[in-house]
Amino acid sequence: MRDREAPAAVRVQAADKLLDRSHGKSAIYVDAQITGKMDAALLQRIETEMMDRLEASRARQRQVLIERGIVVEDGNVLDQIPHSK
Fold first, then answer.
1. Distance between CA atoms of 62 and 72, rounded to whole angstroms?
2. Tens digits of per-residue pLDDT, 5-38?
3. What are the tens digits of pLDDT across the range 52-78?
4. 3-class secondary-structure state, position 44
5. 3-32 in b/e burial notation, b at 16+ Cβ within 10 A?
6. Domain spans of the chain?
7. Do the beta carbons of residue 36 and residue 26 sit within 8 Å?
8. Whether pLDDT at 82 is above 70
9. Spatial separation of the C-alpha atoms in residues 20 and 85, rounded to whole Å
10. 62 to each of 55, 70, 79, how far by Cα in Å?
11. Which has more confidence, 11 or 83?
12. What is the chain's alpha carbon radius of gyration, rounded to the nearest angstrom?
């Protein structure tokens, strides 16, 4: 893209690729076709695992808020966040 002697079309294509990557577009196309059945047992297992992970995440977040002094042990939110000097 920075090569001044490269043809303009090549430089534009390089810039386009960089912009695509910055917006989350994958560098290569991957064609994936998934086949399978979603039965009630699988859906229940997914839901249970997701709820377990969510609960663990909430517990970790609560610990972080307590450590930072934003929430006190009883769950009340402090009115004012203390500022360190």
1. 10
2. 888 888 888 888 778 777 767 667 777 787 888 8
3. 999 999 999 988 888 888 877 776 666
4. helix
5. eeeeeeeeeeeeeeeeeeeeeeeeeeeeee
6. 8-67
7. no
8. no
9. 43
10. 11, 9, 17
11. 11
12. 25
Give the contacts of 42 (CB within 8 A, at least 6 positions apart): none
Here the tokens at position 22 are 């910055």
The pTM of this model reads 0.45
For residue 40 the two structure tokens come to 């009630």
Instruction: Kindly state the tokens that stand for 84.
Output: 């360190």
Distance, CA of 55 to chain centre: 18
Task: Provide the H-helix boundaries in the chain.
Answer: 8-22, 40-67
Amino acid 54: pLDDT:
96
State how far the Cα of 85 lies from the Cα of 83, in Å rounded to an integer: 6
Q: Give the Cα separation of 8 and 64 in Å (integer).
A: 52
